[in-house]
């Protein structure tokens, strides 16, 4: 019987995994360990592999081991594939796939929640209420239909964000090299400088690669309105974290929401109660009342979890049967 090993599996994924295994008559085993040099030997004897993790996999030896064990693919049940050494994978004949659109609504709805908290100054209000201060000064808000939302990266997730805010009456603009005709009644495409200058909400939905690393840097933040908010529910390194902190401290922008941050590996999804978190930038941002922090949970809905399990396992099955996955990234 064909067998697949899934790394970094959470309890909430088990029901979908077992249902898929039964429906497809394929053995699917799981571990809560990440894939790495110290766990790669666990894959020996299996036909396929699925991973989901923040920890990077740079070592060429790891890909050589996968090849030696007869693996033909490395499937991620997440969107971001920057953790993979694509050159080493290619050199060892491994097809790399991801899940580019598990549920665009999941991320877009978190963005909406973050924006509403920022625009309504709920972080500041909650901080005051904790001290029994119920004054209104500084809490007057704008209404969302009067604001311009700027989307950097209008792919599947960015498009879902655009449709939500357009439905609320906002003006929506976007910067993306691909202009999608199906969004003609939803948004207007503009260049990046224009978007940064005009938008009241700047939300980032690009993949992470060499062209988008620190795309939002000091210069970009400087170009934004002092009254504008930045949202990052994509990948942490797209935003230059020290530059963001400085922009917030100097009031160059009004606030930010981050669902992902540089250096989050080993922190987000972990219970670190009673320990010292090794990310001072994260601690600084958490202390700001005009910043919303969530632990990379934009994807985390029932619909998305089921889709990530099923799409990734279907990709493994397709490749093992000699087919080609539409989700191949290299």
What does this structure look like?
InterPro entries: D-isomer_2_OHA_DH_cat_dom, D-isomer_DH_CS, D-isomer_DH_NAD-bd, D-LDH-like, NAD(P)-bd_dom_sf. Residues 113-298 form the D-isomer specific 2-hydroxyacid dehydrogenase NAD-binding domain. Residues 4-329 form the D-isomer specific 2-hydroxyacid dehydrogenase catalytic domain. The chain is an alpha/beta fold. The longest helix has 19 residues, at 302-320. The protein has eleven helices and twelve strands.
Can you give me a brief rundown of this structure?
This protein is of the alpha/beta class and 330 residues long. Helices cover 33% and strands 14% of the residues. The protein has 11 helices and 12 strands.
Structural features:
single chain; 330 residues; alpha/beta; seven-stranded parallel beta sheet; 12 strands; globular
Which helices and strands, and how do they pair?
Layout: E1 3-6, H1 14-24, E2 27-30, E3 48-51, H2 60-68, E4 73-76, H3 86-91, E5 95-97, H4 104-119, H5 122-129, E6 148-152, H6 156-167, E7 171-175, E8 188-189, H7 192-198, E9 201-204, H8 218-223, E10 229-232, H9 241-249, E11 255-258, H10 280-286, E12 291-293, H11 302-320
Parallel strand pairs: 1-2, 1-3, 3-4, 4-5, 6-7, 6-9, 7-8, 9-10, 10-11, 11-12
Give me the Rg, rounded: 21 Å
How many strand elements? 12
Spatial order of the strands forming the largest sheet: 8-7-6-9-10-11-12
Count of alpha and pi helical runs: 11
SS-derived structural category: alpha/beta
Net shape: globular
Please estimate the helix content.
Answer: 25-40%
N-to-C series of helices and strands: EHEEHEHEHHEHEEHEHEHEHEH
In whole angstroms, the N-to-C terminal distance is 28 Å
The low-pLDDT segments are: none
Please outline the major beta sheet: 7 strands, parallel
Strand content: 5-15%
Q: Average pLDDT across residues? A: 96
């Amino acid at each position: 019987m064909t067998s697949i090993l899934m790394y970094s599996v959470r309890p909430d994924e088990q029901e979908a995994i077992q249902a898929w295994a039964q429906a497809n008559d394929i053995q699917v085993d799981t571990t809560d360990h990440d894939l790495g040099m110290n766990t790669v030997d666990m894959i020996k004897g299996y036909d396929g592999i699925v991973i989901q993790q923040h920890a990077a996999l740079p070592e060429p030896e790891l890909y050589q081991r996968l090849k030696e064990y007869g693996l033909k693919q490395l499937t991620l049940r997440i969107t971001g594939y920057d953790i993979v050494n694509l050159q080493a994978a290619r050199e060892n004949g491994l097809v790399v796939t991801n899940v580019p659109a598990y549920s665009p609504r999941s991320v877009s709805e978190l963005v909406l929640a973050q924006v509403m908290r920022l625009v309504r100054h709920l972080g500041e209000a909650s901080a005051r209420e904790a001290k029994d201060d119920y004054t209104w000064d500084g809490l007057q808000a704008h209404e969302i239909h009067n604001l311009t939302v700027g989307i950097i990266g209008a792919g599947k997730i960015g498009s879902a964000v655009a449709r939500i805010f357009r439905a609320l009456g906002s003006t929506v603009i976007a910067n993306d090299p691909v202009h999608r005709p199906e969004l003609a009644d939803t948004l207007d495409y503009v260049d990046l400088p224009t978007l940064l200058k005009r938008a009241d909400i700047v939300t980032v939905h690009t993949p992470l690669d060499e062209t988008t690393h620190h795309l939002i840097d000091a210069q970009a933040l400087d170009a934004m309105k002092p009254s504008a908010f930045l949202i990052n529910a994509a990948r942490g390194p797209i935003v230059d974290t020290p530059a963001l902190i400085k922009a917030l401290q100097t009031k160059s922008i009004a606030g930010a929401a981050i669902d992902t941050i540089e250096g989050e590996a080993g922190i987000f999804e972990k219970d670190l109660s009673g320990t010292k978190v090794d990310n001072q930038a994260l601690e600084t941002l958490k202390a700001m009342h005009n910043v919303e922090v969530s632990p990379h949970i934009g994807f985390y809905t029932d619909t998305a979890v089921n889709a990530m399990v099923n799409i990734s396992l279907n990709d493994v099955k397709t490749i093992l049967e000699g087919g080609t996955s539409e989700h191949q990234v290299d």
